[in-house]
Each structure stands twice: as structure tokens, then as C-alpha cells.
Design brief:
By secondary structure, this protein is α/β, with parallel strands linked by helices. It is built from 9 helices and 10 strands. The strands form 2 sheets. The chain has a 6-stranded mixed sheet with strand order 6-7-8-3-9-10, sandwiched between helices. Strands 2-1-4-5 form a 4-stranded antiparallel sheet, with helices on one face.
């Protein structure tokens, strides 16, 4: 469970990222956060693992306090919170398998990491993760040789190998073509259901939000202005969230 209680974020330049956010996200939900650029959706997602520090309020993830946590506590928290980025965040010069094994670093003795000697059990977890995303045959391929969609599936496999209970995805399909974007979100939704992940995804495309979300959270000026099911989020609701009429840029063509 993720609990925001009066959470505020003010950046060093004075910009307010979050303004008194109160939210509870239940275990196992697939939540999509929408809003214009600067609305606070990335700030919301990135507070969950402490990448964006909370300025005021209380934030808990699975009973662990995030606000005010020490570096050691944040490291412990992040072991259970996986992150998927728009830019994939892979080490391009090494193999797909090695990239997935990076999800096990939090549970790997330093000497094994330095010598590049993963445990057999961790290798097995990595191969299982690659099977779940359908690219196990690419295990020994350099990450740089993969397409964008394949690279994002490696990033998903890394989170699976991490055995995270919470998965965050910050604009994970923004750089992908429509068919690939849909495949990546289908994978996230399916795997989250199979493994019981609590998944929070920051998206721009409204049609995809409606298609995949159990719950949609609309952000505007750092505040939650909508919180409801995908069925409730019609065009009028999105116009309220965005403060303007919808355009072709707000949907991803199939």
C-alpha cells in the first residue's frame, strides 16, 4: 500500500511540484497518473522511491516512511520498489542478461558484483523474468542491439528479477510507436496481475490510460483533481484535468 498524507514538494528553485496530496493506493492496483507537463505527475511517481524528496507531509510505502528517510532506509525501501524509465536506463554495452541481473544487486554480496559472479538462483530468476516478457532468446545479446520496445521489456524484466512489490513507470512508452507501446503496457498490466505488483504509471496518452488502468489519477498544478475508475474518465473529465479541449496529441493512434 502507498499512502500520501498532505504531501508537498517544493523544488530548490521555488517551483511547487506537489501541493497537499492525499492518496491511498491499495496493494495490487494498476494506477495511471495523467496531466499536462508540469502538472505534478512525475513528481508524484518519483516521491514514492525518494528520487524526489518530500518537503512536507507523510508518505509511506508498505509501512515504511519515505519522507525524512535516511540514505540507508531509502536503499532498503528501493529494494522493494522497481522503477521503469522512459529512456530504459540500460547499460547498452553489456548483455541483456547482465542488465536483468542488475535487479538483483540489492541482494548480492559486493564481492560477487565486483567479480561478475552472480548466484545460480539469481541467474534462474533473470531467465524466468526474460521468459515472462517474451525475449529470453535475447539473453546474450548486447542491449544496444535491441529495438526500443525490446529494451523497455528488458527494463521490465529487471524489475521482475528485483522481486519488487511496487513498480513505478515514468512515461514508459513515450518514445515507442503505437503497437509497441500497447505491447509494453499489456506486459506491465499482465505481469502486475500475475505477481501482485502495485503499479503506478505516469502516462500522457489518454486512450491508453482508459484502456489499461484500474484507476486514473488526474493531476493539475500539483493537486489531485480526479481520482476514479477508467470507466468514469470520459472526455469531459479529461478536459477538466487538462483545463482545455482535448487534441489529437492527447491520444496515441492505434
Amino acid at each position: 500500500m502507498i499512502e500520501f498524507s498532505g504531501v508537498e514538494v517544493v523544488y530548490p528553485n521555488g517551483v511547487r511540484g506537489l501541493d497537499g496530496v492525499d492518496l491511498t493506493i491499495a496493494h495490487g492496483q494498476f494506477v495511471v497518473v495523467v496531466g499536462l507537463s508540469g502538472a505534478g505527475k512525475s513528481s508524484l511517481v518519483r516521491t514514492v522511491n525518494g528520487l524526489v524528496p518530500v518537503t512536507a507531509g507523510r508518505l509511506e510505502v508498505d509501512g515504511r516512511r519515505v519522507d525524512g528517510a535516511s540514505r540507508r532506509r531509502l536503499r532498503e525501501l528501493r529494494a522493494g520498489v522497481g522503477m521503469i524509465f522512459q529512456s530504459f536506463n540500460l547499460v547498452k554495452r553489456t548483455s541483456v542478461l547482465n542488465n536483468v541481473l542488475m535487479g538483483r544487486l540489492h541482494a548480492t554480496p559486493t564481492w560477487r558484483s565486483v567479480l561478475g559472479m552472480p548466484r545460480a538462483a539469481d541467474r534462474e530468476l533473470a531467465f524466468e523474468a526474460l521468459e515472462r516478457v517474451g525475449i529470453v532468446e535475447k539473453a546474450y545479446t548486447r542491449a544496444s542491439e535491441l529495438s526500443g520496445g525490446q529494451q523497455q521489456r528488458v527494463a521490465i524484466a529487471r524489475v521482475i528479477a528485483q522481486q519488487a512489490s511496487v513498480v513505478l513507470a515514468d512515461e514508459p512508452v513515450a518514445s515507442l510507436d503505437p503497437p509497441t507501446a500497447n505491447q509494453v503496457l499489456r506486459d506491465l498490466k499482465r505481469i502486475g496481475g500475475e505477481l501482485g505488483h502495485t503499479t503506478v504509471v505516469n502516462l500522457h496518452f489518454l486512450d491508453m490510460a482508459r484502456r489499461y488502468a484500474d484507476r486514473i489519477i488526474g493531476m493539475r498544478a500539483g493537486r489531485v483533481v480526479f481520482d476514479g475508475s477508467a470507466e468514469e474518465a470520459d472526455d469531459a473529465v479529461f478536459e477538466q484535468i487538462y483545463g482545455r479541449s482535448l487534441t489529437a496529441d492527447d491520444v496515441l493512434l492505434r
